[in-house]
Structures are given as C-alpha cells and as structure tokens.
Amino acid sequence: MSLQYLSDCHIHTDCSADGTDSAMMICESAARLGLYSVTFTDHCECNLYRAGGFDRSIRQSCYESRKAAAAFQGRLRVFSGIELGQPTQDLTAAEDALGCFQYDFVLGSLHNLRNQKDFFELNYSAAGLDDLLNRYFDEILEMIEWGNFDSLAHLTYPLRYIVGEYGLTVQSSQYKNRIDEVLRSLIANKIALEVNTSGLRQKLGVPMPDYPVIQRYRELGGTLITLGSDAHRWADVGAGIEYGLKLLREAGFHHFAVYSGRQPHFLPVE
Ligand SMILES: [Zn+2]
Ligand SMILES: [Zn+2]
Fold this sequence. Notes:
By secondary structure, the protein is α/β, with parallel strands linked by helices.
C-alpha cells in the first residue's frame, strides 16, 4: 500500500469468538502492507458480559496487544482498544469492562436491539422493517447520550443483512431525519463517526455508513472520523482503508483520527 498514514482502527484477533488470528500475526501482515498503525478492538458484548466470558477474553486481548506493540516497536504503531457492544443494555458490565484496562480507543457498537438476537440472526421481510430501524436509531441515540466511547462503529449495521443478504430495499430518504439526529448527537458529544469498510467485502458492497452519510456528517460540521476494516482474520487487515480515505477526500475531509490514550490524533487524508 502506498499511502503513508494508512491506519486500521477496527481489528479483531483470536481473542474475539469470531476472530481467527493472533495479534502477532495481524501485526506481521500490517507491517508487510506498510500500515502506519493498527488498533485492536476485540468484542465485548455487554449484554453477555459474564455469561459470554467476555470479562476474561478482553483482558487477554489487552495483554496480547501490548505484547505485539512491544514486539513491533519501530515498525508499526499498535494501539489497544475494545469494541463495546450494547453498552447501555448492561451499564455495570460496560463500566467494568472499561475499568479493567487503560484503553487507547473504545468503539461503541449496536449488534442487537434490547432483548433481541444479533441483527445477523434475524429474519427480515418488508413488514416491520420501519419499526425495527426506528428502534435501532433510538438505541444508537441512547448509547451516544451515555457517551463513554470514542467512535460509533458501523452505523447502519442492520443494512448489511436487510439489504446485503435479504435484498430488501430501504429508502434512505425515509431515515434522513433519524440519521441527522445521530450525526448531530455525535458532533455535540464529541464522538467520532467510524467508516467501517467491511461492507465492501460483503454483499452490501458499500461501507457502513455509505458515502451520502459521510458527506452529510461533513455538511453538519463533523470533523472526527475513524476508519476500520473490521477484519476478523489477518488477510483482511487494512482492507478498504485506501478506498475509505478516497471517500473522505471526496467529501472534503482533510484529516481522520487515530486514538491513543482515548485522545484523537489527527492524520492527513492523503
Ligand atoms: Zn461490530
Ligand atoms: Zn468489529
């Protein structure tokens, strides 16, 4: 890869149940590709915190990322993060997970609505979609109001399944006001918007969120953007990040953010 500051701020290791490769293997791959930095963000699903064993696996993830940072010193910047799923569904778990390590970066995610399965496991039909998506935006807004995370991961995640897998049509104009509410709330709370490039590798075929939302965030005055591949295996590290930077450039952004010690550091959009 040719750009100087390519950074992937959303990567899973084998400390996530659905990740396959070690932090060391991922760093080896990132260094070979010439990435500037990587941030490990293993899963912590707050609604399943103890039952799912996340209290153990996130500690393991933090130690593995620190070991990799030491081993790759001088070749690759390695940051330690977490993907905090559904934090407002169990605030005690969220606070426990946040308290167990000095993270560089905290992603906030919503993989399932309260008392429902992951969007990945639901069956979709046109009926009920509107209600489902409105509940999704309601819970996203609740999370942002709680606010103890640095970047909102994969906004529009349900579309990966509704549009990508089920081929249903969602009129984005119908949700323009809801998306505006989310973007305005991110800006007011100084929380970044993630451009998650995993959608490019899937049937959805576009990042989450897609370009019109990125452009709208800019129009509303947003300046805090993070980029992540959401890789779950070494071969996907850095995937789509160059394309993500191209979209940012087209939307008029001059910088994107990489977090260290939970503070944004701005790198140029080349
Ligand atoms: Zn996620
Ligand atoms: Zn993820």
